[in-house]
Design brief:
Structural class of chain B: mainly alpha
Structural class of chain A: alpha/beta
CATH architecture of the largest domain in chain A: 3-Layer(aba) Sandwich
Number of strands of chain A: 14
Distance between the termini of chain A: 42 Å
Strand order of the largest sheet of chain A: 6-7-8-3-9-10
Order of helices and strands of chain A: EEEHEEHEHHHEHEHEEHEHEEHEHH
Distance between the termini of chain B: 29 Å
CATH topology of the largest domain in chain A: Rossmann fold
Radius of gyration of chain A: 23 Å
CATH superfamily of the largest domain in chain A: P-loop containing nucleotide triphosphate hydrolases
Number of helices of chain B: 12
Number of domains of chain B: 1
Largest sheet of chain B: none
Helix content of chain B: over 70%
Oligomer: heterodimer
Number of strands of chain B: 0
Number of domains of chain A: 2
Strand content of chain A: 25-35%
Largest interface: A-B, 30 and 25 residues
Chain lengths: 322, 262
């Protein structure tokens, strides 16, 4: 039988007139990484705040590490680590002082707290900056300090709310490595992200959150197979767009979208056999003057547009957001 | 209170004492502001204030400034808790398995330590401008204890207000306004000369009871015979205000902290 580290049913939360969550169901098996993928305002942060006992749901139930978030919040808090969206360390204290403080509040004795802080500072590459105030840290360093503060007691479940938003690629890679290492040691991770690539890199299961609900769920591979890749072609002159569209339609089986201003044609393909050389050869054979062509992962907005196609109102909302 | 709550409180207290070292601005202001005010009010306004019987205005002013520093807890604690809330530090505390009472308790305790340090230069400067302890050591000890108790009370009020306001900028603006509170009391000037209704309001201001209690405990004089009840019974009234305000604001603060913000 699977043991779930996070299990929620019908979570609802309203803030005034805003219906942030409309019945969110989650089931994250122990030792796995679940990625909540969604746009701004989809309800991801609200879900994390509910599951980490920061706010109470209006309806629904949730268990984290086997404990009910409403009935046994302190047991939940003993089992989790949380890195929120804004850096939640004391910026005026040094990295070392921060870690020691939070370790003490995790009820580690003084000697253990000191030792644990030193180990984590080294581990997260903050050894040299350990005695500088956290406000002098770069964005990536602060995030790493935040992450270190969240794993002082080796939590059973780690919550990461958009852990890499706003970071440069190198810092992002460092955070990803840290998360992978934690999961190797059996920690269950629930992370939220706006980046498809991040979910793909880290998550065993991805839950697409839209409008306060789980819209789609699956492994990254299933999701990618379902979402396909985006083929984009830019031509030398507007008159050639129709020719490009015809080739794209034939290869992808879809109806390409044209952007005359950029002289580009776009189509989604779910054919894993379609490669860029093949696409270019076909375009060339049809006499289309290609100046640029690409096969890339869809952006989050394109994903939602694609997944909610057929639902007129939703599609419009997606376009407005894009 | 169990030992875990105590150890959590001590950890939070330690955090704020470390902050005093890392961000010394608050400590510097706490040490210098009351002295500046004593010199400013004492020599600028003091030249125009004529006290009954020709008493020394600066000696009259010193216990009033003690009371003013005791009330500054509203300001310092409000800034501290709103800052923690806005910067997300409060969220981290609230996801820790720590005692719910420990965060406000540790922060307000640190504020009392700050206030105790702030009293030292004011006492020295007060002695230099002619103020004296005339009521014996026990009375003086009682006065300082009462002042620190009030600082604790006002820090709890400030902590609560900071949680309600939740952003540093608004808290900063309101903190500026708390400067007005002691103006409507007998801390700076005697209330006897105020219009009747205003005098009543000023004398029911808890700061008046505190100031009068200090003057009495330091042996610096008795209230006017026709003063309102709190000023006529300053020790009882000041202690009563402290107990009442703590009984209201401690549970309010702990509940607000545990509930969080939307």
């Amino acid at each position: 039988m699977t043991t779930y580290a996070v299990l929620s049913e019908g979570l609802e939360k309203r803030f005034g007139t805003v219906h942030a969550l409309r019945g969110l169901d989650l089931a994250v098996p122990e030792g796995t990484v679940c990625g909540l993928l969604g746009r701004n305002g989809a309800g991801k942060t609200t879900a994390v705040r509910l599951l980490t006992t920061l706010i109470a749901p209006d309806a629904g139930t949730a268990r984290v590490a086997g404990h009910d978030v409403l009935r046994a919040p302190r047991d939940v808090r003993r089992s989790i680590g949380v890195t929120g969206q804004s850096t939640s360390v004391d910026a005026d204290l040094t990295g070392r002082e921060n870690l020691r403080l939070f370790a003490r509040l995790h009820r580690l004795d003084r000697a253990t707290a000191r030792a644990r802080a030193d180990v984590l500072l080294d581990h997260f590459g903050l050894g040299d900056a350990a005695d500088r105030p956290a406000r002098t840290y770069s964005g990536g360093m602060r995030r790493r300090l935040d992450l270190a503060a969240s794993v002082l007691t080796k939590p059973r479940v780690l919550f990461l709310d958009e852990p890499t938003t706003g970071l440069d690629p190198a810092s992002r890679g460092a955070i990803w490595d840290a998360v992978r290492e934690l999961t190797e040691h059996g920690t269950t991770v629930l992370l939220t992200t706006q980046y498809l690539e991040e979910a793909d890199q880290l998550a065993d299961e991805v839950v697409l959150v839209d409008d306060g609900r789980a819209a789609v769920r699956g492994t990254p591979a299933q999701l990618k197979a379902r979402l396909g890749a985006h083929a984009e072609v830019v031509v030398a002159e507007g008159a050639a767009l129709a020719g490009a569209a015809a080739v794209l339609a034939r290869l992808t089986g879809g109806r390409p979208a044209l952007d005359p201003a950029r002289r580009s044609a776009n189509a989604v393909t779910t054919d894993p056999g379609l490669t860029l050389p093949h696409l270019v050869r076909e375009l060339d054979a049809a006499g289309v003057p290609v100046v640029d062509a690409a096969l890339r992962q869809p952006t989050l907005d394109e994903v939602f547009l694609h997944l909610t196609a057929g639902d007129g109102a939703r599609t419009e909302a997606g376009e407005a957001a894009a | 209170m169990n030992t875990l709550a105590l150890s959590d409180t001590r950890a939070v207290l330690g955090r704020h004492l470390q902050r005093m070292r890392r961000v010394p601005g608050l400590l510097v202001i706490t040490l210098t502001m009351p002295v500046t005010m004593l010199l400013f009010f004492g020599y600028v306004f003091g030249s125009a204030v004529a006290l009954e019987g020709g008493a020394n205005y600066r000696a009259y002013l010193v216990p009033g400034l003690f009371a003013v520093t005791a009330v500054n807890g509203v300001m310092t604690a409000m800034l501290a808790s709103s800052q923690d809330l806005q910067r997300g530090v409060m969220d981290r505390f609230r996801t820790l398995p720590m005692n719910r009472f420990a965060l406000p308790a540790g922060q307000t305790a640190a504020d009392v330590v700050l206030a105790a340090l702030g009293l030292v230069p004011l006492v020295l400067c007060g002695l230099a401008v002619g103020w004296r302890i005339e009521g014996g050591a026990a009375g003086a000890a009682g006065a300082f204890a009462l002042l620190l108790l009030f600082r604790l009370v006002t820090a709890w009020i400030g902590h609560y207000l900071g949680l309600v306001i939740g952003n540093e900028e608004s808290a900063g603006q309101l903190a500026g306004a708390t400067f007005m509170l002691p103006l409507l009391s007998n801390a700076y000037v005697p209330t006897e000369g105020m219009p009747g209704w205003l005098r009543t309001v000023a004398e029911w201001n808890p700061i008046s009871a505190l100031t009068t209690a200090c003057r009495e405990l330091f042996g610096n004089g008795r209230p006017a015979a026709d003063a309102s009840w709190p000023v006529a019974h300053p020790l009882l009234a000041a202690t009563g205000w402290a107990v009442l305000l703590l009984a209201v604001f401690v549970p309010l603060t702990v509940r607000r902290y545990a509930r969080g913000t939307a």
